[in-house]
Records
---
Amino acid sequence: MRVLLVGAGGVGTAITRIAARRSFFEHMVVADYDPARAESAVAYLGEDERRFTATRLDASDAAGVGAALAEYRCDVLMNATDPRFVLPLFEAALAQGAHYVDMAMSLSRPHPSRPYQECGVKLGDAQFERAEEWVAADRLALVGMGVEPGLSDVFARYAADELFDEIEEIGIRDGADLVVDGYDFAPSFSIWTTIEECLNPPVVYEEGRGWFTTEPFSESEVFDFPEGIGPVECVNVEHEEVLLIPRWLKAGRVTFKYGLGDEFIGVLRTLHKLGLDRTDPVTVSSAAGQVAVSPRDVVAACLPDPAGLGDRMHGRTCAGTWVRGTKDGAPREVYLYHVVDNQWSMREYGSQAVVWQTAVNPVVALELIASGAWHGSGVLGPEALPPRPFLDLLTEYGSPWSLREGAHG
Amino acid sequence: MRVLLVGAGGVGTAITRIAARRSFFEHMVVADYDPARAESAVAYLGEDERRFTATRLDASDAAGVGAALAEYRCDVLMNATDPRFVLPLFEAALAQGAHYVDMAMSLSRPHPSRPYQECGVKLGDAQFERAEEWVAADRLALVGMGVEPGLSDVFARYAADELFDEIEEIGIRDGADLVVDGYDFAPSFSIWTTIEECLNPPVVYEEGRGWFTTEPFSESEVFDFPEGIGPVECVNVEHEEVLLIPRWLKAGRVTFKYGLGDEFIGVLRTLHKLGLDRTDPVTVSSAAGQVAVSPRDVVAACLPDPAGLGDRMHGRTCAGTWVRGTKDGAPREVYLYHVVDNQWSMREYGSQAVVWQTAVNPVVALELIASGAWHGSGVLGPEALPPRPFLDLLTEYGSPWSLREGAHG
């Protein structure tokens, strides 16, 4: 397998470090708009590691990406950029006859008149409407293959296959007890993206009703996360799993709740109340005269860059899928989850826990595609493919998953 | 009396409207850096009102202000600008032999090493250290003569003169139930100034200990405001009364607590936690490239301009002085207060309630100076002068004050 990895940010860089320990691929081209980032990711792997090449690439230029796929004879494009670049990369892979893997799907647009009741354009819609073309080309577009979406969808399929006869509800629940030393307030992830995720109308799926949206921060609950993380306040957030799972699995209800915690939820509510979450510019005075700036950019600029906080952070992050239903006529409830400890990921890979947890899953998926254990054509979510090989290989990567039986939510 | 009014913002404009109904002065020159603001204030009064003249003046230019005092033969300078201009205006009046009235005193600077324990430069220090010169010139600098400070200090003196034998504590308590229709969150006053006030270390006075500072938002209490406003969460805020009252009155403790309410206090705490209260610039991208902006300016730019909200606002604002002590050997507790209803002030004067309440008090003071009921030389606070004539004249202006007997705090 020859891979074109587009994006050498935190997750892309962690992908190179995880992949470097595996033998399933022949070559990986590491491409970034900023060639220094790509070169730095490759240099970190050492001189003896010759399977990686750094190059410059503009992810918004589908033709340029296609040319790179051809030049380096890559059979799969691994997208590790931000969601704005999903479509050009997805199209470049299709045009070039390469497989495609991403970790976030094409963006949504709220319903024009009833944004908090009805879906407008949904996450991934622009990709699923091209599914026939991928089938016709006999190529696989594996979408939403990070940790959430990604591993969380694999868990859902595993629950449906092996743990339940009928499923009433599937709820992805994400929480952490990560703390950054030395700051009053320092989110361990981009506040810009978190605002975007949390203020988009959250989407919920119900059998019979289909997909619908709610107000931001709806259906607050306290979920008890395992391995000492403990109870964290969670709220509905727009996320790919809710759009992916019902396409392949039967469940009465599907939700995604993000364990932001009451402090962070309070901060986001305040930013929203004051209009500081807006991206449309406001005019303010500066030493250079009147300038127009996006309030959300200013909020991000006031906080430390989370990419540089890995070595000041401690704690664990937990991604998982809570399922409620029946098995052999009896009610059952399980939480399938994966925890990464930041001290472990920093020591082992020099990668922050949230970033590492996102990166390990697409590498596992690439290895399954390379071996043929995962194969198919069209636009598929992770729950469309057999879960056992994935979960076993993840454990082989040194990062096992767990199952908690019973109601703890 | 001939008055040079400097500043034709909200309060300055309301001063012209209140003064126009009184006959105690011969002429009032309305000066502003922006001549359109001065002209608009004068034009509002109508063609028959010939006692007002608009002019342009830079309040930071003491020589220019002195020249205007001379040109218009003014015997008093009424400062209605923001506190940054206190010193040049105060000096211009002294140099020109005019009396001086302001509504906020020269600014403080925190203690360099123990900002939340000890005072650095206190509010008004730069004015009080010039007191001898005012005495020598036989001119009066009446400082802190708005509503708070101002009327609140008159109440304190009235309580000391007529209601108590001994005073254990004087606490200024300011609260409102003003609501702006059509906004999620719209403060009825400048958020920039409110952040400044609330994040400066609050100052407290105790007999024997003197002045000292605390952490922001300290000593939170719920004070029950009269006339249906009801209970509002109040916290310590740096304010002039705490510096003024102990110079003339004997009290065991003096505090100022601002009834911001739990929602507003939560917003300010969040802004502080995120560093969005900062005035030092952060660098962000804009359409014009990288620019440096003050986060606090961006916060202010995201909110509606409170000056334009008067006609969308309803409710009342209450300023007052709570006093606890003994009279004739028995414990006593009173709250002396002044309430302005926004619908009334908008209808009667076209001025928002908070602005009108600030503006009426210096006009009453000017009338007392004109009549000779208030006279003196040096730098004096309102509590240095007899309170009865002031309180009676305020009632005559159609805006009576009240006394609540007993503990309701």
Note: The radius of gyration of chain B is 21 Å.
---
Amino acid sequence: MTEDWKKRAEVKRDAILAAIPKEWRIENPPNEKQVDVTGKFVQQFLSEREVEITETTADDIAKHTVSGTWKAEEVTRAFCHRAALAHQLTNCLHEIFFDAAIADAKALDEYYAKNKKPMGPLHGLPVSLKDQFHVKGVETTMGYVGWIGTFEGKTGTGKEKKFESEMVKELRNSGAVLYCKTSVPHSLMTGETVNNIIGYTWNPKNRNLASGGSSGGEGALIGLRGAPVGFGTDIGGSIRIPAAFNGLYGIRPSTGRMPYEGMANSMDGQNTILSVVGPLATSVPSLRLVMKALLAQKPWLHDPLVHEIPWRHEEERQILEHTGAIGDASKIGKLSFGVLRSDGIVNPLPPVCRAVDTVVKALEALGHEAIPWEPPSHKTLLDEGIKTWFFDGGTDLKSAFALSGEPMAEQISFYSSPSLKEFTASQIAATNVRLREIKKEYMEYWNSTAEKTSTGRPVDALIAPLAPFPAARPKMYSYYGYSTFVNVLDYTSVVVPVTMVDKWVDRRDEGYRPIDDTDKKVYESYDPEIYDGAHVSVQLVGRRLQEEKMLAIAEYVGKALGM
Amino acid sequence: MTEDWKKRAEVKRDAILAAIPKEWRIENPPNEKQVDVTGKFVQQFLSEREVEITETTADDIAKHTVSGTWKAEEVTRAFCHRAALAHQLTNCLHEIFFDAAIADAKALDEYYAKNKKPMGPLHGLPVSLKDQFHVKGVETTMGYVGWIGTFEGKTGTGKEKKFESEMVKELRNSGAVLYCKTSVPHSLMTGETVNNIIGYTWNPKNRNLASGGSSGGEGALIGLRGAPVGFGTDIGGSIRIPAAFNGLYGIRPSTGRMPYEGMANSMDGQNTILSVVGPLATSVPSLRLVMKALLAQKPWLHDPLVHEIPWRHEEERQILEHTGAIGDASKIGKLSFGVLRSDGIVNPLPPVCRAVDTVVKALEALGHEAIPWEPPSHKTLLDEGIKTWFFDGGTDLKSAFALSGEPMAEQISFYSSPSLKEFTASQIAATNVRLREIKKEYMEYWNSTAEKTSTGRPVDALIAPLAPFPAARPKMYSYYGYSTFVNVLDYTSVVVPVTMVDKWVDRRDEGYRPIDDTDKKVYESYDPEIYDGAHVSVQLVGRRLQEEKMLAIAEYVGKALGM
């Protein structure tokens, strides 16, 4: 068996590559020879028209396809081509089904020709999916060798290559075209994307760095414009990390807003901190477009965990109507922000500090205000919250690895510790109570900021790092506190790209005195030479179920930054 | 210690009685001498004006107090008096704080006089609370002797008699007057209300029977009109059972609609099936009034588990605007109902069958339709759901009883079994996954009814028994499936009173062939002589988070029944 898994992984890896048409095959230069494969590098393999299509945002593509000025088939072919290049350059795909996609696109064009109207608001829009979604015709391996040829590790279920996740149906109903599934780290429990099938997913903007995780394939693919919009999942940062590392917008909605029904998962049934599903894209209107389209499908009628909350235009109206007038805070209404410069556990690296400053200054220049964020202890919150990832003592993951005998990646070796034990019901209950208390305390802190703002309202959003580094270097992702505190609180968070690392500006402080060993490890991972050119992002955190408002604010902030 | 608990219980029991002014003390005739203590019996101890006030529904009282035509103090005094009588006749109170209530009422009257406006939509309205709410100045024992003089069993917390639950604050902000806390069964895990402090809470309409549980004090108190509206909680039927047994309306909202923050509970932290809080009252507009008032306080800003869903008039508008025209289904729009006559596990007793028929006939006569409800197996659903009550193997309850050494009531003796073991995290996760699958299957069954209705829509609500019996006889509550399936699904359910047992009509079927021993036990508990005159109710079950719509339908059905 030990050698068997290597062979099975190789066969699968080859099958993925083999699904790319010969004419789209390229020579992939070594990472060190071609660190940045975005922009001009990838464009050389594409026609002008393909570049035009693939560098259009999802919302603008939809305007063309919905109005019929662009054909679904042409758009789909362009993205299939670019996704094929992206995979060859970064290892970002687990499943390729271009033929099915082109057939679907043709059917959409025929539908349009016949009915003189689009199938739905996503008519003809290619959408990529993390390899947790089940799509008919292809597998879901989630990076596990033992899942190859199975349905979530089981055989003979009758669901293999047939069953579709709820959101997949809803995307199809809305007219979206599905064409590929993207890479994940096996287990989903790390911010780097690595598994024994496709290897390591690289950051296309800087191939010294991780594309992020666990939705790292989405990050790399959309970062290279191999998809205009795609869906990831997030239990500790897994949508936002790849969004941030790849210069994208990405939203972690609160639990119960978007349909997770029928997706594969790790440690399914742990229901203290739930993984959520949400989109990544190159613009905020793209995120809004797909979320609105999905909510228009009334997912609460098909997913028992989705709340009946349709898209609430009222929550975004005031900000959206005045985003054009970014010079005039009096129109949009003055906004108040909290600023978290450090959580006191690990300090962000110089480029991240600069990104936070950049956002604050841009907003202040427009007449808004930012006050220091002095919340209840993040350490307490994180210590309690992270317990949930270990409730089952690694039982679920170990059984997935045992299916094939493949080894765990070093990045998740903490799950192989023999000292891990299953929590008892009483221990889980105590954690749940403590987490509810922590949420209550944090919520009341948020309320209390009304006393510190000049608006008399609590802050509208929190500006915070998403990770201590712009992106992680391989095997150096050692601290998750900045992304994970949001999951513990179940808040809404949108990643906003801010700048890029400039080795001449973002220098190391050689006199830096680390807080402790964890902080030291992070600081020591920073090398301006290696990081030069990497994307730097922040997150804007809102209260629970504030998706409309937070997207509006993120769009406004993006415009303020000129992004 | 063994004898000590008896003494502590007696002291507390006496203190409750002692809080009733001497002039309100009465002689309580033996149950068998005076089976029904409602109506004329209790009225004999009240003035005409007191009867007028206390027999007005909460929504009509609020109209008077909000417009200033009735004074808060007069209303409060009347309800204090009647609550004092109710306690003496049924043992329905754990805490009495009439003096504080009268002082609060006077302050409200002064506020009104000074500001020429009410404090809020509940200005001057007395509201009773189940003894899980913390209210300053009084204890919360939840029926545990070991909790007397503590905060949830702990001493030195600084919260004793000071801390208030979130909803208590919101009720006060809305102008409500709090004056008593009502009895519960220790553990909260039974449909009868019994504990070692106050003994047994009797059904005022028929003192052969239970007032229900676990919000049994609420049921008895409101049943006797000692409160116009009050709040209970429900994890397996605990709001609806006392509502049904006492001829009241009561709603079990879905999880996340009403604020539970800061309340005492059993097995706190079990978060697979959550207990929810909701009102019981003598009319639907009374339930609506308090729910709307609470949502107007934006509880999602103070309770991390409440969803931001304000009252949605749109969901009730069409039905409400035409409830006057109940003869005309074309105006209200034809409604479709599912009818569950039996869950196949235990058959409802004759009066309950008659109540279900009565509702169906009344609706059909008005032009609506009812189709048989043939859902996925309730047995499977219940077997899985009820596991959640045993996740901790009784650890929490045993520790509460151990505080004083008091014995568990026979009604919950299943928790003292030495064979109970704590579930592991993996076992809990497997249960959570299975329950999600069960919910999904049930939801799709509901969707599928669109193919069977004449409206082309899925059914608007399900008509179902709330319990197999009109009320339980002491120690004979042996089956909870009719109430509990709603909690497992997290659906909205409103209890509607329908009729009363008539021993001449609701006869035993001496040839009845029971399904099995459980069914036999229930059937054998039915004795028309004992049950004569008892309330008989049904529940109207709606999908998750359908509170507005379900209240509108319940009000409509109530009018159709002439209740």
Note: Chain A touches chain B at residues 256, 261, 267-272, 300-305, 307-309, 391-393, 395-396, 422-426, 428-433, 436, 439-440, 443-444, 447, 489-490, 544-546 (CB under 8 Å).
